[in-house]
């Protein structure tokens, strides 16, 4: 069984003579192995608890940087009315759970809520600031906290602009994280925010409760800034949860670059999959090169960059013989260039799970740097590529270790 799996995994490394190997690569077994890895070490779960049209999708879009269309298409049902969204889809670093139907007539959410409660590492209640009827949401929060008195809760109050006077804009700088904010915002907004806070009251237990007013809109709404309160929400998430959601979703080195953010999420996902492979009983780390190659071409797709033979050769040479060893990528009828970094590995030695994950992370970061330089028409030096790679190995180890310190249930 093991030899069969590994043979098929290695077959995924073989590509056609075209410059777009992803079209002909057989990924069936690799995809199955990735699913096994996700099951062995599932991503943390964020439970978005709120009524329909409360702004849950806007929060997912803002936290992940994904457009609404992708989010809508990505939701999958997991109970009668609860659904989940894995991000990124192939190698998720986070799962969002959404309960639909709260507050609707003839809907008993007990079964769905019990399922979500059994899965979640973090609860974000989403309440639209103009909707004063939040009993269905607040009753669930009270019940959950009676069962889990130490669980932190974040309440995101959304759609603030709907209470503004005509022609008014957001109050800047963001006022809600300092005392006396009630005096610095529009009266209708202050009344609505305080009404909801008083309506919930004090939750049972000793876990923290963070209220975060946000207004997360799309550029075409022409409301500036479109991510009003997002940093405050991130701050609340970081304080409330130890699952490292910020490290999973945000590339702190290039916060203003959408591609870097999206690429970072993919790289972290493939690194986590590399680590999880070590836990699978019938798969050893010989399958790691297939994961790394799949990641490479995924990043190329995102950047509209073709990893042809010339690019592979150049990137391999820049990394250097001291770093690059490993498995080949065979183009039909032609020799391949060995391109998978195996820092310090000797022939036949198995990767440790953490080391394999760190190397996958570093390989992805170095590839992104290389693609960025090529897209800019800028020179790419071996010293720069190796520096990115070496620093990313250490960062990758730190991230993987921190991700495994999950919040206790």
Explain this structure to me?
The protein has a seven-stranded mixed β-sheet, sandwiched between helices. The protein has a three-stranded mixed β-sheet with strand order 1-11-12, with helices on one face. Strands 9-10 form a two-stranded antiparallel sheet. It is globular, with a radius of gyration of 24 Å. Helix 13 (353-375) packs across helix 14 (382-403). It is α/β, with parallel strands linked by helices. The longest helix has 23 residues, at 353-375. 45% of the residues lie in helices and 12% in strands.
Measured by DSSP, the beta-strand proportion falls in: 5-15%
Name of the top-level CATH class of the largest domain: Alpha Beta
Order of helices and strands: HEHEHHEEEHEHEHEEEHHHHHEEHH
Alpha carbon gyration radius = 24 Å
Shape: globular
How many domains? The number is 2
Instruction: Work out the helicity level.
Output: 40-55%
Number of strands: 12
CATH topology name of the largest domain, in short, is Rossmann fold
- Walk across the major sheet and give the strand order: 3-4-5-2-6-7-8
The whole-number mean of residue pLDDT values reads 79
Give a quick account of the main beta sheet: strands, pairing sense, barrel closure: 7 strands, mixed
Helical run tally: 14
For the record, the CATH architecture of the largest domain stands as 3-Layer(aba) Sandwich
